[in-house]
Amino acid sequence: MNAQLVGLGWGGIFRLGLVQTSLGAIIVLTTSTLNRIMVVELALPAMLPGFLVALHHVVQLARPRIGHGSDVGGRRTPWIIGGMLLLAISGVVAALGTVLMATSTTLGTLVSALGFLGIGLGSGATGTSLLVLLAKTVSADRKPAAATIVWFMMIAGFAITAGTAGAYLDPYSPERLIAVTAAVSVLAVFVTLIAIRGVESSINLPCAPADTPQRQANFKLALREVWTDTTARRFTVFVFLSMLAYSFQDLILEPFAGLAFGMSPGESTQLAGTQHGGVLLGMLAVAASGSLAKRHSGRLLKRWVVGGCIASAFALAGIAWGGAHSDNWNLSANVFLLGAANGAFAVAAIASMMTLASQGNDGREGLRMGLWGAAQAIAFAAGGFLGTVAVDLCRQWITEPTHAYGVVFLFEACLFFVAAYLGSAVEALGSETNAASKPLRFGDVALQEVMDGGVT
Q1: What is the rounded CA–CA span in Å between residue 3 and residue 136?
Q2: End-to-end Cα spacing for the chain
Q3: At what angle do helices 143-169 and 297-324 cross, to 10 degrees?
Q4: Which superfamily does CATH assign the domain made up of 1-199 to?
Q5: Which tens digit of pLDDT belongs to each residue from 391-424?
Q6: What's the pTM?
Q7: Cβ atoms of residues 123 and 27 within 8 Å
Q8: How far apart are CA 144 and CA 134, in angstroms?
Q9: How many angstroms separate the CA atoms of 112 and 210, rounded?
Q10: Nearest of 12, 11, 61 to residue 379 by alpha carbon
């Protein structure tokens, strides 16, 4: 029996979503709250928290190794719990380092860096293992909805923690920061232990094919074998390129709204809320369509992935055009459409990871998921920064600022078009059977020469 046929019920999916909520609760404190305290209360350069946040992304290159470790052990629960424990402890260490910066910037930075390294490793271990567990226990028709649920519940963790913890942090003091961070971390671990308890053991998962212990435990050999799988390799490139495009406008959209449309800081902040509303709509649309199309969920996911990328590209082109015609262009509506396209594509990509990870039937689901998770993390780390660099470079050559931003948005649109091309080539994604060994094609044109020449 395939792992996809072993159906985890909606209650089990929501329970695993609580793990994502706990993960999001700690992440938002360390990447948002500590960032603000370093810059505002401690008057430190903004590049310092920027470096620490980037550090937590870069260390997630270890995700493939983490995923392989869970493959060898055969169980995901210990990695989820261990990762959450490391994340919780590291969150407190990062907060302690922030407090120490008030008296010694060097010592505080070193302690915080250690904390952010642990945050990256802990979130990588928990997130990767959780997605693998979902991939192995959720039926194919429920994977789009499951991806939406866990993503939405992580965002809920961001929102709930930001509101609740923020209230307890005022008036700010170092003691309050440590106490609030510790309380959130302990609560996150407690919720994770309750949520994950008995989920994996209650599902009769099929065993991986027989293999020699030496071969099974050899990470380099396992990584080489996964990378030679054309589906895994090309999907890795697709994930990196699409998520790079997804995050490229993170830090430039609000400044563009102010320059091109004369929006105030409050109005541009509301624009971000409009975009998030669109993201939620796109996510819900994917979840609903997946539940309705039970027989062809793989093909439907592929359409959402490709269609979401194409729609994102057209929305970005509209923003670029609107910058030159701001008097008669509804930027809010345009941004809402961009959010809807981004949300649909992103959650369909996560569901696709869950689908493809369990298609190999070689006991290397964790390694595959780790590989794609690492590609996503690095893309997120690079995307926002490269977007700002691209704007600065364009403004060196283009005197009109709105036109410079427009060029960058058009470049981002091109990235989405290329991502759509690569996504359409993943034929295994559109198949309801194991198609990992089939050649990947775009229409009738094989991409073997294009991708092999550029990737391997």
Answers
A1: 5
A2: 34
A3: 50
A4: MFS general substrate transporter like domains (1.20.1250.20)
A5: 989 999 998 989 999 999 999 999 999 999 998 8
A6: 0.79
A7: yes
A8: 11
A9: 44
A10: 61
**Distance between CA atoms of 31 and 372, rounded to whole angstroms?**
22
CB 137 within 8 A of CB 150: no
Count other Cβ atoms within 10 Å, centred on residue 55.
Answer: 18
Q: What does the block give as tokens for 403? A: 């036109």
User: Burial of 449 by CB count in 10 Å (0-12 exposed, 13-18 middle, 19+ buried)?
Assistant: exposed
Query: Residue ranges per domain, the chain?
Result: 1-199, 224-456
Q: Given the DSSP bridges, would you call strands 441-442 and 445-446 parallel, antiparallel or unpaired?
A: antiparallel
Q: Which residue is listed with tokens 């969150």? A: 91
CATH fold, domain 224-456, is Growth Hormone; Chain: A; (1.20.1250)
Please determine whether the domains at 1-199 and 224-456 fall in the same fold group of CATH: yes
Amino acid (1-letter code) at residue 26:
I
- pLDDT of 12-35, one tens digit each? 899 999 999 999 899 988 877 888
- Listed in sequence order, the DSSP H helices in 197-218 are 213-217
| Token pair of 453 as six digits | 């020449």
CA distance 341 to 226: 30
C-alpha 98/C-alpha 169 separation (Å) is 14
What whole-number distance in Å separates Cα of residue 94 and Cα of residue 114? 7
> How confident is the model at residue 238, as a pLDDT?
93
Helices (H) and strands (E) in the chain, counts: 18, 2
Q: Is the confidence at residue 44, as pLDDT, over 80?
A: yes
DSSP state of 170: P
Measured N-to-C along each axis, helices 219-228 and 230-247 cross at an angle, to the nearest 10 degrees, of 80
For residue range 125-152, what is the model confidence (pLDDT) as tens digits?
A: 999 999 999 988 888 778 888 888 888 8
